[in-house]
Design goal:
With about 450 residues, the chain is of the alpha+beta class. It is built from twelve helices and six strands. It has two domains: about 65-120 and about 295-325, no CATH class; about 145-285 and about 340-445, Up-down Bundle (Outer membrane efflux proteins (OEP)). About 70% of the residues lie in helices and about 10% in strands. It comes from Candidatus Sulfomarinibacter kjeldsenii.
Length: about 450
């Protein structure tokens, strides 16, 4: 069996572990490929594009081919079909009884076409609607991508936060367990009361409960990240370290203005409004004529696909609806009211976006202040625990004093952890609700 130097084994192991770490960019890339929400939005955009192609095709001529069979002894039809077959014989016609002809079999092969010339603006309106809806679905697809990116980044940050929370509790639990051991030792030597030992054990039990909750929370956060990535929710993940949150520049009014301009879901709503406005044009009363060119070319014979007789025709057709009973007028009025309703919805949508951005901005500002305060509080709590531990070992403090100090430290660590991750989460939220690209943010962190 081949042996390897220890240093080589360590290098290979370190490389393997590094390769297993999931970076934020890799998580986002996986979500964009595998998340069903992105897939659904992509398919909706593709369907809208095909509907646009279908709408444009109505401007092209329609050509059809048909084959029919007629078996008749109707005098007029026999006369006409005999002419069409090219088999009419004048002498035979006068020698026969035209009122009682023999049955005639006729196969008719017809090639027909129709070309719209003018439809009173209806066709252009329908194509315009299809274009607006296709553009709207493209915007919604882009917004869905950003939404999935944001939710994946949020899940990634939440998992990192949950695991760091668990690590803090593991460290705190280890410290508490050591204090219990010291309390038991001091109680055996008669330096402290058994009640102090009992308090320490109760505190250790609480730490075990908190640690169990944190472990379960980390597992759930891991499942949530896998859910966003479209992966098996039980798949374990080793996360790469997070980069610091990108600083936010500009004031709140700049971010609000950018959101109203750049939000893709808002842009999609505006394009749908454009489509709704065109409905009034498409449904306007038929005071405008519809003009088309029609044509056909037919083959007639007494056998299938025969061509003993043939003829064709071309015609121009113009039609105008003089009275529709008010249906078109009602449809046009309904379209106008629906457009007005949608305009009001969009105004409310815009105001909602402004409010959402302001809230995200203020949340981020508050998180930054809380983090600064939490860091100062954490330093003070760490110093308090250090002093209490020293005094407890010297017999100058009671166990309850040390436990209270440790409780204060744990709470300070949690406040600092939550505030620090809230800065990252609120930064991403502000960029998302303002319509900024989150992919640029992740690329900047590489």
């Amino acid at each position: 069996m081949r042996t390897y130097p220890l240093i080589l084994i360590l290098v290979i192991a370190a490389t393997t572990v590094g390769a297993q770490e999931l970076t934020l960019d890799a998580a986002v890339d996986a979500a964009l490929v595998n998340n069903p929400e992105v897939m659904a939005a992509r398919e909706r955009a593709a369907a809208a594009a095909k509907r646009l192609d279908g709408g444009k095709s109505h401007r092209l001529p329609k050509i059809g081919l048909s084959e029919s069979f007629v078996y008749t002894n109707n005098p007029a039809e026999v006369f006409a079909l005999t002419l069409n077959q090219g088999r009419f014989d004048m002498e035979e016609f006068f020698l026969s009884d035209p009122n009682n002809p023999d049955p005639l079999s006729t196969f008719i092969t017809t090639l027909d076409f129709e070309l719209p010339i003018y439809t009173g603006g209806k066709l252009s309106a329908r194509v315009g609607q299809a274009e607006a809806m296709a553009t709207a679905e493209d915007y919604l697809f882009a917004h869905t991508r950003e939404k999935v990116i944001f939710e994946t980044m949020t899940a990634y940050v939440n998992l990192a936060k949950a695991r760091e929370h668990r690590e803090l509790l593991e460290k705190a639990r280890s410290t508490t367990a050591e204090n219990v051991r010291l309390a038991e030792k001091y109680a055996a030597e008669g330096l402290i009361l058994d009640a102090d030992v009992l308090q320490a054990r109760v505190y250790l039990s609480e730490m075990d409960e908190f640690l169990t909750q944190a472990t379960n929370g980390a597992r759930l956060a891991e499942a949530a990240l896998n859910f966003q990535m479209g992966a098996d929710q039980t798949q374990p993940r080793a996360l790469a370290p997070l980069s610091p949150a990108m600083p936010v520049v500009g004031d709140v009014d700049d971010w609000v203005a950018a959101a109203v301009e750049d939000r893709r879901d808002l842009a999609a709503a505006r394009r749908k409004l454009d489509a709704g406005r065109l409905e009034e044009k498409a449904a306007r009363p038929g005071y405008f004529p519809e003009i088309a060119v029609l044509g056909n070319y037919s083959l007639y014979d007494d056998k299938l696909f025969g061509s003993n007789g043939h003829n064709g025709s071309v015609m121009a057709v113009a039609r105008i609806n003089l009275l529709g009973g008010g249906t078109n007028t009602a449809a046009r009025a309904a379209a106008r009211h629906e457009s007005a309703s949608f305009e009001a919805d969009i105004r409310r949508f815009e105001e909602g976006v402004r409010l959402e951005v302001r809230q995200a901005w203020l949340d981020l500002h508050t998180a930054g202040i809380r983090h600064t305060t939490a860091k100062s509080t954490l330093k003070a709590a760490e110093e308090a625990v250090r002093v209490r531990e020293s005094r407890f070992r010297q017999g100058l403090d009671k166990m309850i004093d040390l436990l209270n100090a440790e409780t204060g430290l744990r709470e300070a660590e949690m406040r600092e952890l939550i505030a620090r991750y809230d800065v990252a989460l609120d930064t991403n939220r502000l960029r998302y609700v303002s319509g900024s690209s989150l992919i640029d943010t992740t690329e900047d962190s590489k």
